[in-house]
Design a protein that fits this description.
Elements (H helix, E strand, L loop, with lengths): L6 E4 L4 E4 L2 H4 L8 E8 L15 H10 L4 E3 L4 E3 L2 E7 L2 E6 L13 H13 L8 E2 L2 E2 L1 E6 L4 E6 L6 H6 L6 H4 L20 E7 L4 E6 L7 E2 L1 E8 L3 H6 L5 E3 L5 H5 L4 E16 L10 H10 L2 H7 L5 E3 L23 H8 L5 E7 L4 H14 L3 E7 L1 H9 L5 E6 L11 H4 L21 H12 L3 H18 L3 E13 L23 E2 L1
Parallel strand pairs: 1-12, 3-15, 19-20, 19-21
Antiparallel strand pairs: 1-2, 4-5, 6-7, 7-11, 8-9, 10-11, 12-13, 13-15, 14-23, 16-22, 17-21, 17-22, 18-22
Helix pairs in contact: 8-10, 14-15
Length: 517
């Protein structure tokens, strides 16, 4: 694919043209690599704050195009569009880099930051770090000058700085005239503030092209272009040089680990599978003994061995996977005990439908769960749908049992567990992986989940979080099936910039991976 003056942006709604500034530039800057190619083939939505899919790959593509005040590296929060920041009580003052512009060349100032805050209050984006349940994180703001804005938070918690730092900044001169951002695909709907511009997107094929925005002030893009290309066989595509990074098959681990030219990014226990119970449709499982019997019925080690090829672990009933900073090794454990499960379900005549996605390992895991549950006396029907349909069904509560598999379990647990287990905040995350059980309530768990978010003393918060896990393991609001470990592999001699952050293990979805540092 060659750079041309008019790149066609293809969406489900319309065709239009976009002329990126860098394409028109007379002098081409140097990059570490000309093109980084990644596996595509799935439509993760239009990469703007209102139209991308809620899962990680959709959020990551939008984050390439739209900048935020802060980012995270291996150790903590770092500046992105903000060069500096201070915190005093509940006032967070951010100072923008000098000379910031949007992709269309208009200046990016604190007017745009303030506008984004106001606009998101009326029109919440897909990934809404400013939302706190039914409330809004921002109480008020003061524009001090074009580069400095002071934001006053309604309440201050351990995550407030990160939340205020992570909303995507949109151009006021475009969106102030848009009354419905959820359907808008007109002029400027992909004009961002990030390090890359979306210069091509095809929903039908799941193809994306991102071109470096050379006027991005905070950091230099590492690649001139990023391509997400459809591939039928990712491993073969990697071997043929069609993509530059991919997941390493477990059965070929020794081969690639012994290849000095291959770099590896380990994602320890980062993929996880849980089984949600809709207690409104399956009220018999409000009996905790039956929930424990579900654990006893499942040969979860068999899933790790046969589906993950041993690269993973049986999930902790406390939810946080083994090896994490917040992991509690004193959680209640449930051994595989099919006879105990059979005794518990004897005479109950229980029939359930198990919802799963029709891709990845989901169907294989669902079928193993079906075998185990039916051996214990529960009749199970597995129904599978395309992942986005499955997600919509989970979000709307249209299921009895649902298998949810997603990455991010190795991330920072306090940022996601409250939306799973607190009666106040659960099911507010917008993603199926942050959805909690429907029809289940626990006051003690809710109080702890809410309190830990407000605790700024790390040691106290750590203990509270371990207490949360212990309650989850005792009360069993959902079934944690297993966690999968994996590696991403890449060619070190071509590009060696792939990295994880302290709170996210997916290097391919981390925009710092695409920057020269």
């Amino acid at each position: 694919m060659k750079n041309i003056n008019f790149c066609f942006i293809i969406s489900a709604a319309a065709f239009f043209t976009l002329t990126p500034a860098s394409v028109l530039a007379a002098d081409e800057p140097s990059y570490e690599v000309e093109t980084l190619k990644l596996e595509g083939g799935t439509d993760w939505g239009t990469p703007n704050p209102f139209l991308h899919q809620s899962r990680g790959p959709g959020q990551a593509k939008a984050a390439l195009v739209y900048g935020s005040l802060l980012e995270k590296d291996e150790k903590g929060d770092i500046g992105w569009l903000a060069e500096d920041w201070t915190v005093e009580d509940n006032v967070f003052t951010f100072t923008l880099y000098d000379g910031l512009t949007f992709h269309d060349g208009d200046d990016l100032t604190t007017e745009d930051v303030a506008f984004s805050l106001d606009y998101y209050k009326e029109f919440p984006p897909v990934s809404n770090s400013l939302g706190t349940g039914e409330d809004y994180l921002v109480e008020s703001y003061e524009i001090i000058d074009d580069q400095t804005i002071a934001i006053t938070a309604e309440e201050v918690s351990a995550d407030t700085l990160s939340s205020l730092g992570s909303f995507k900044i949109i151009p006021k001169h475009i969106w102030e005239n848009v009354d419905d951002p959820y359907t808008y695909t007109g002029d400027g709907y992909l004009t961002g503030s990030g390090a890359y511009m979306c210069t091509s997107y095809d929903a039908a094929s799941g193809s994306y092209e991102f071109t470096a925005f050379d006027d991005f002030v905070p950091m230099k893009p590492a690649a001139q272009r990023i391509l997400f290309v459809p591939v039928s066989d990712p491993l073969l595509a990697f071997e043929n040089g069609e993509i530059d990074i991919t997941s390493m098959p477990v059965d070929l681990m020794d081969r690639y680990k012994n290849d000095a030219s291959i770099g590896l990014v380990e994602k320890s226990n980062d993929m996880g599978y849980k089984m949600l119970i809709n207690f409104e449709k399956c009220p018999e499982f409000l009996d905790k003994e039956l929930r424990a019997a579900l654990y006893h019925a499942l040969n979860r080690q068999n899933i790790v061995d046969s589906v993950f090829r041993g690269a993973g672990s049986v999930g902790s009933a406390g939810y946080v996977p083994e090896g994490g900073l917040y992991y509690n090794d004193e959680c209640t454990t449930y051994e595989y005990d099919p006879e105990a499960a059979k005794a518990a379900f004897d005479g109950k005549d229980i029939k359930v439908t198990l919802l799963a996605a029709d891709s990845g390992n989901d169907v294989s895991i669902a079928e193993l769960i079906k075998i185990d549950l039916e051996a214990s006396g529960i009749e199970v029907e597995v129904v599978s749908y395309e992942s986005s349909t499955r997600d919509e069904m989970i979000n709307s509560g249209d299921y009895e049992f649902a298998l949810v598999g997603n990455g991010g379990w190795g991330n920072n647990p306090p940022t996601y567990m409250r939306t799973i287990f607190s009666d106040i905040s659960k099911n507010k995350g917008g993603n199926p992986h942050s959805m909690g059980p429907i029809g289940y309530s626990n006051e003690e768990l809710t109080q702890l989940c809410e309190a830990q978010a407000d605790e700024t003393d790390f040691d106290k918060r750590l203990q509270m979080f371990k207490d949360i896990q212990k309650i989850v393991s005792d009360e069993i609001p959902l079934i944690v099936v297993a966690n999968q470990s994996s590696y991403s592999m890449y060619r070190k001699d071509y590009y060696d910039g792939w990295m994880k952050t302290y709170a996210y293990q997916q290097a391919e979805q981390n925009r710092l991976s695409f920057m020269s540092r």
